[in-house]
C-alpha cells in the first residue's frame, strides 16, 4: 500500500556550516571590530546561543545568520527565538531553539486535517512523524499538497514515499 512520512527535519551539517560562516564573518567585519560577538551551537539541546555587545549588534548577528541560513538552504522557520538577556555590563546573550520533528499537537493537527479533507487516506502518528497511507498514489499527492498549503509555520518534508 502506498505511503509516506510527514516530518520536519534539520540538516545539521548545513547548520554547523552556516554558524561557522557567521562566526567567521563577524570576526572579520569592521563594524564588529573589538566586540565579543559570536554564536555557539549545542547540538544535544538543539539550541544555539548568540552573544553580542549590545542590542544593535545582536540584531546585526541575526541578519548575518539569516543570510547564511538562506544560502545554505536551512529554513528560518525552524528557529524559535529566545529572549535577549543582559549578562553583565552591556553584553547581551540570547538562546535560540531549533525546532526539529513534529510535536504532538502539530501531528494531531495534520491527522485532523487529513480526516476532515475526505481524502481516502489514513494518517497515524509515529513519534515525531506522521505516516500517511492511501490506496492510490494520486490521493497521497493530494494529501501532500494539502499539508504543504495549510502548515506554513514549520518546514515540513515528506520522505519514505513507497509505491
Model description:
This protein is of the alpha+beta class. The chain is built from four helices and nine strands. The protein has helices at residues 12-28, 55-72, 104-116, 137-150; strands spanning 3-7, 38-42, 47-52, 79-80, 85-88, 91-98, 121-126, 129-134, 157-162. The strands form two sheets. Strands 2, 3, 4, 5 and 6 form a five-stranded antiparallel β-sheet that branches. The protein has a four-stranded antiparallel β-sheet with strand order 7-8-1-9, covered by helices on one side. β5 (85-88) and β6 form a beta hairpin. The radius of gyration is 20 Å and the shape is elongated. The model has no long low-confidence stretch (mean pLDDT 90).
Total strands: the figure is 9
- The assembly state of the depicted protein chains is single chain
End-to-end span in angstroms? 7 Å
Low-confidence stretches: none
Amount of helix: 25-40%
Structural class: alpha+beta
The averaged pLDDT comes out at: 90
Order of helices and strands: EHEEHEEEHEEHE
Shape: elongated
Q: Report Rg.
A: 20 Å
Q: How many helical stretches?
A: 4
Per DSSP, what share of the residues sits in E-state strands of 2 or more residues? 25-35%
Main beta sheet: strand number and arrangement? Answer: 5 strands, antiparallel
Amino acid at each position: 500500500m502506498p505511503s509516506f512520512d510527514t516530518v520536519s527535519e534539520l540538516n545539521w551539517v548545513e547548520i554547523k556550516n552556516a554558524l561557522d560562516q557567521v562566526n567567521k564573518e563577524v570576526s572579520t567585519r569592521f563594524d564588529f571590530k573589538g566586540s565579543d560577538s559570536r554564536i555557539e551551537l549545542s547540538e544535544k539541546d538543539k539550541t544555539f546561543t548568540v552573544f553580542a555587545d549590545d542590542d544593535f549588534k545582536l540584531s546585526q548577528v541575526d541578519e548575518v545568520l539569516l543570510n547564511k541560513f538562506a544560502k545554505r538552504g536551512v529554513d528560518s522557520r525552524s528557529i524559535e527565538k529566545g529572549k535577549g538577556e543582559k549578562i553583565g555590563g552591556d553584553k547581551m546573550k540570547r538562546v535560540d531553539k531549533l525546532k526539529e520533528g513534529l510535536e504532538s499537537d502539530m501531528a494531531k493537527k495534520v491527522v485532523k486535517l487529513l480526516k476532515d479533507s475526505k481524502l481516502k487516506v489514513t494518517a497515524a502518528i509515529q513519534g515525531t512523524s506522521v505516516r500517511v497511507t492511501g490506496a492510490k498514489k494520486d490521493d497521497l499527492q493530494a494529501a501532500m499538497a494539502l499539508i504543504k498549503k495549510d502548515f506554513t509555520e514549520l518546514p515540513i518534508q515528506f520522505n519514505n514515499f513507497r509505491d
